[in-house]
Design goal:
Elements: E1 2-6, E2 10-14, E3 18-24, H1 50-70, H2 80-96, E4 98-105, E5 109-116, H3 118-127, H4 133-153, E6 165-169, H5 172-188, H6 202-205, H7 207-213, H8 219-233
Antiparallel strand pairs: 1-2, 3-5, 3-6, 4-5
Helix pairs in contact: 2-4, 2-8, 7-8
Length: 235
Amino acid sequence: MEAFSRRHLPHYDVSHATYFVTACLAGSIPSTGVLAPKKPVGATLRPGDAGRQRWCDAEDFSRTETWLDERTPVRWLADRRLASIVRCELLRAARESIDLHAFVIMPSHVHLVFTPRREFTDLLCRRGERLPPRSIVMRAIKGRSAVACNRLLRRAGAFWQSESYDRVVRDETELEDVIAYVEHNPVKAALCPRPADWQFSSAHVGQASACQNVGQASACQTMNDRLKPVLHDMP
């Protein structure tokens, strides 16, 4: 299965693919102005221009990431209580429906890298679910965490931006690069000196077991193994 869709953002789904997804808090990114996409999908692009489009998307993502790390006024996830809620939902998804390779919870957004499990995608197919597994996973994570976080904040309304940024990870080399990017995000944003120092990340969650596995597994396998003790202890 391969499918392309677009609301405000482009989404590309492939059967059994691994995804790099960024979910942003509602209001953390202005809808117009400096962060408006430089080249909308399909505008002046001909078939075969996928490489050019990927470059445009990467440039837009880089500008958005800089804004999220340095300038956005919406930073609810700086509250450790709220970040803990989101982390629990990520780990719940890892236990129930996905292989979670890496994640980081930043004050204004969340990065995660995951592969929907085959048994989960097969279940969705038997149910006749029309949405792709990526969408189902993100809807569950964002929906449950939004309810709990809004309750703590004593507010109503959108907690997350309605759409997430996502891209398909093409191979293991790119997977390694994406994992490194995700786990170094707090360091790049000057929030901590080392990736493992950031409490709300896979680098911190799996620090001890990762040290034992260095040089013994692929990036994908190591990330999955890092989370096993935590998932086993979840209620």
